[in-house]
Automatic annotation (TrEMBL):
Keywords: Signal. It holds the Pfam family PLDc_3. Residues 1-33 form the signal peptide. This is Putative phospholipase d. Belongs to the phospholipase D family. Residues 171-198, 386-412 form the PLD phosphodiesterase domain. It comes from the Eukaryota. GO terms for molecular function: catalytic activity.
Length: 452
């Protein structure tokens, strides 16, 4: 019976199993190793190709009437960089933003409105007369943050506008990113909103990037993500297309010659749901920068509150808080936090901050200091709504610079769109950012936290 046609001989069964085992044990690992080697070779080739000489320039807005007694402001203004980017664009301008308020019709009496109007008119001219392709990805407009500016640009044919509906995409939050890209040859990342106040009445800090093809192409992928998931039909895909995946992250940063000094650079994004394969999330990049500090961590942000603030019920969110305490206590890293104080400061903030500063000196070698930064205002300037504040969002350590677009409140990393750029190495940029922090820390505008 066993020898009849259509039946397997007994001797064939173990041979089949042996062949299967050979495939599983020998050939598959070899194929897997070959695939990994191919991917590693391709990545190394990309990294080698992208070893470029790049230009990074810090950018600031110093509010009208604010001058330092013992400091300087040698960096170009946000207004000058934005107008330069618009003027130099030959093909495209891609802008990701929270909201637009360049033409505040209720603020004509305040100095600085002319700068917002000038930027708006330059964009209008670029889109209509110069035929520049202007694409705007903005947070879903609301009653409090309407889309008057972008609607006019769209209606006049100067720009294509898409709304990023974060509540629909991730269940809440906003697009808080502030990103400008011109021809994919230069970019701005920083704290400045597309608001006339960010050009004249709010203290801002950002970074202008040029002559850096690979990095700029990678930054553009973040804009492409916003554009693809935006209304009316966009959604977060089950599998991100290869076009928005990246090889550059915390594990494999770009090795660049940055302003003539060696640097390791990558761009992070938030929330994690909008991070395609390879992209480091913004919170992971912040934690990495804190963890890798050897001597000090200096932080300048508008808000620092370790909670989820914009949920139905506030929740404790100690992710950054724990990292800072660990750095100070376990590794004796010096910490300084410079936080904004203005009319809209959450009263709970100073209690969380004091809980950090109270650790200073509690154990040997632990140094943790906190100050409030107050932008000076005249009686007339105090009438400007949501102005006269230090809006910075950066961190600098003894070996790394981080510049972002998010406040350090839990929601900004879990359900809010943002971007960060990380530059590791003993670069001139890092030193410049440290000097800006110390300028502000030691200025007449910073004060120790006092509780009643």
């Amino acid at each position: 019976m066993w020898g009849q046609k259509g039946w397997f001989k007994p001797s064939c069964v173990p041979i089949t199993i042996i062949l299967l085992l050979i495939v599983l044990v020998v050939l598959l690992p070899l194929l897997d190793a070959a695939e990994k080697h191919q991917r590693t070779s391709a990545l190394n080739s990309t990294l080698n190709k992208c070893q470029q000489s790049c230009n990074f320039t810090l950018v600031e807005t110093i509010p009208f009437g604010m001058t330092y007694k013992n400091g300087s402001t040698p960096y170009p203004s946000t207004y000058s960089i934005w107008t330069e980017m618009i003027a130099s664009a030959n093909h495209s301008l891609e802008l990701a933003s929270f909201y637009w308020n360049l033409r505040d019709v209720d603020a004509d009496a305040f100095p600085g409105t002319e700068k917002g109007e000038a930027v708006f008119q330059a964009l209008l001219t670029a889109g209509i007369e110069r035929k520049i392709k202007v694409k705007i990805a903005q947070s879903l407009p609301t009653k409090g943050f309407p889309d008057h500016d972008t609607e006019m640009l769209r209606r006049k044919g100067a720009a294509e506008v898409r709304n990023v509906n974060m509540p629909r995409l991730v269940g809440g939050g906003i697009l808080h990113t502030k990103l400008w890209i011109a021809d994919r040859k230069s970019a701005y990342i920083g704290s400045a909103n597309t608001d006339w106040r960010s050009l004249s009445q709010v203290k801002e800090l950002g970074l202008f990037i040029s002559n850096c093809t690979c990095l700029l192409q990678d930054i553009a992928k973040i804009f492409d993500v916003y554009w693809d998931v935006a209304d009316p039909v966009g959604k977060i895909p089950d599998k991100w297309p290869d076009s928005v995946k990246t090889d550059f992250n915390h594990h494999t940063p770009l090795n660049l010659l940055l302003n003539n000094t060696k640097a390791r650079v990558y761009v992070s994004s938030s929330p994690p749901q909008l991070c395609p394969d390879g992209r480091t999330s913004d919170i992971d990049s912040i934690l990495s920068v804190i963890h890798n500090a050897d001597k000090f961590v200096y932080i300048s942000v508008m808000d620092y509150i370790p909670i989820l603030e914009f949920t139905a019920k506030s929740e404790f969110w100690p992710v950054i808080d724990n990292a800072l305490k660990s750095a100070a206590i376990d590794r004796k890293v010096e910490l300084r936090l410079l936080i904004s104080f203005w009319n809209y400061t959450n009263p709970a903030q100073k209690y969380f901050l004091k809980s950090l500063s109270d650790l200073s000196g509690l154990f040997k070698g632990v140094s943790l200091s906190v100050k409030f930064f107050v932008v000076p205002s005249t009686a007339a300037q105090r009438k400007i709504s949501h102005a006269r504040v230090n809006h910075n969002k950066y961190m600098v350590t003894d070996n790394t610079a981080y510049i972002g677009t998010s406040n350090w409140v839990g929601d900004y990393f879990t359900k809010t769109g943002g971007v960060g750029i990380i530059t590791a190495g003993n670069t001139t940029l890092r030193a410049q950012l440290e000097n800006i922090f110390l300028r502000d820390w030691n200025s007449e505008f910073s004060y120790p936290i006092l509780l009643p």
